[in-house]
Design brief:
The protein is of the alpha/beta class. It has four domains: 103 residues, Alpha-helical ferredoxin (Fumarate Reductase Iron-sulfur Protein, Chain B, domain 2, Orthogonal Bundle); 44 residues, no CATH class; 125 residues; 109 residues, Rossmann fold (3-Layer(aba) Sandwich), CATH 3.40.50. The chain is built from 26 helices and nine strands. Helix 24 crosses helix 25. The longest helix is centred in the middle third of the chain and has 18 residues. The C terminus is likely disordered. Bound molecules: iron/sulfur cluster (SF4) (2 copies). The site of one iron/sulfur cluster has 14 residues, from helix 4.
């Protein structure tokens, strides 16, 4: 009898338990109408119901109700095959909050599923060091910039060494780093006619790989009356951890950012990276059970504004220079779906003299970047990247505009792979040019 009980016990599905259990009420909000299916990139590629938002919500519900084990292989596969692009959330008539549900499900997998030792080492080293220590990332960017400037990349590529080390794809993702990294507490931008103060969220990748975009953001804000600084004490937004279910790490970074921006004073927290902005706006949810930070997190989140959103809130100071470009817009998922900012970048681009905006088919379909998805799941990421590249190339535009570092790098790699010579630029780089700002010097890198 005791043996039968033991077998029953071992066969019983492992339930959600402990911290960060997916919210039952949120799960029950799905009425299985299927309206989200056509928007889902993984469903569109696979045609498989399990790879759709409805299918994944069904799987989460099955674990919540004890019909499926948390350790079931298909459950884990689907939770991580999802790009967390939130396209499903934006069209759902029942208001299902898919993002928090998939992040909680991943947190459950993190807490209860064992991984091979080498994956644990990889996650606690490669994944944790740079995001926990942005100074380290900025130091790495200085080295990378030197590597690009002296042409070491092309030597390693031509001799096949990068392929041998399996670093070819990773190396190709990094665009030319145009300027030295931007550290908090140094740069400020003062307008001629001050309307208000603003505080720039510096980011980890943005401050290291795209410092020219952060400086262009400061200049564009100053043109529009914002006295802008880069508050000291801020770090990574923690999105990379939220998306992988490492929610305690995300909370630690969130608390540090809240402290930093409270100390900086009042005024909007301006973000120019869609993924970071979306994560910062969700600090209220992330820290909802924290007795010290819950209220402060909500107040902080209300201060966060995307640069497109802020500039479009009032009449844009008219740009004075002609930018003779035909461009197309690639909408980052965390801008279009998570923050529902879609009209504002178009409105800003249309105010630039000489610029011609051509719409891209499927402009808000995920490009496959999705945090570190293009590193952990390169197959699906490449399929989506190729699809995006084909759509961008079909517009005939010379430049693809976006506003998220992950999308920027994924677009660049996908366009190169598809033989395109289109450039990729952040929207503020183009706005900055239209105000006569310094376009950062980029040297050509033959990454093909
Ligand atoms: S998530 Fe929303 S759109 Fe999708 S099936 Fe459920 S209720 Fe319908
Ligand atoms: S978040 Fe994106 S990939 Fe995941 S289920 Fe929703 S639409 Fe599909």
């Amino acid at each position: 009898m005791a043996t039968v009980n033991l077998i029953d016990e071992l066969q019983r599905p492992v339930p959600f338990s402990g911290q960060d259990v997916p919210d039952d009420d949120l799960l029950r909000a799905c009425v299985h109408c299927g309206m989200c299916l056509p928007t889902c990139p993984t469903y569109r590629e696979t045609g498989d119901e399990a790879s759709s938002p409805r299918g994944r919500l069904w799987l989460m519900g099955a674990v919540a109700e004890g019909r499926l084990s948390l350790l079931d292989e298909d459950f884990g596969e689907q939770m991580y095959q999802c790009l967390n692009c939130r396209a499903c959330e934006a069209v759902c008539p029942s208001g299902v909050q898919y993002g928090p549900l998939v992040e909680a499900s991943r947190a459950q997998l993190e807490q209860h599923r064992s991984r091979p030792w080498w994956q644990n080492v990889l996650r606690s080293s490669v994944m944790s060091w740079p995001f926990n220590n942005v100074r380290l990332m900025r130091g790495g960017a200085v080295g990378l910039r030197l590597y690009q400037q002296i042409g070491l990349g092309s030597f390693l590529r031509k001799t096949g060494i990068l392929r041998l080390l399996r670093l070819e794809n990773l190396e190709r993702m990094v665009p030319p780093i145009a300027e030295s990294p931007i550290s908090p507490g140094h740069d400020t931008w003062t307008p001629d006619h001050r309307l208000a103060d603003a505080h720039l969220f510096n980011g980890c990748v943005m401050s290291s790989v795209f410092p020219d975009v952060n400086r262009a953001t400061g200049r564009v804000l100053a043109h529009n009356g914002y006295a802008t600084d880069v508050p000291i004490g801020q770090g990574c937004c923690g999105a990379i951890y939220s998306h992988t279910g490492m929610l305690d790490d995300a909370r630690r970074l969130a608390r540090a950012n809240i402290d930093a921006f409270e100390h900086a004073g009042s005024g909007p927290v301006v973000c120019n990276a869609a993924g970071c902005g979306s994560a910062l706006k969700e600090y209220g949810h992330l820290l909802k059970d924290d007795p010290i930070y819950a209220d402060r997190a909500r107040t902080f989140a209300e201060r966060v504004v995307d640069v497109n959103e802020l500039l479009d809130q009032q009449p844009l100071v008219p740009p004075t220079k002609t930018v003779d470009l035909t461009v197309t817009l690639q909408e980052p998922c965390h801008l279009a779906h998570a923050q529902r900012i879609s009209a504002q970048p178009r409105s800003l681009l249309r105010q630039i003299p000489g610029l011609n905006l051509v719409e891209m088919h499927e402009s808000s379909l995920c490009c496959g970047s999705a945090g570190i998805y293009n590193i952990t799941r390169p197959q699906m990421a490449d399929v989506l990247g190729d699809r995006k590249a084909r759509n961008a190339m079909a517009t005939g535009a010379g430049t693809v505009i976006t506003s998220n570092p992950g999308c920027h790098m994924q677009l660049r790699t996908s366009l190169l792979r598809n033989g395109s010579e289109q450039e990729v630029e952040h929207i503020v780089t183009i706005l900055d040019e239209a105000y006569g700002g310094k376009k950062a010097e980029r040297w050509a890198i033959d990454a093909r």
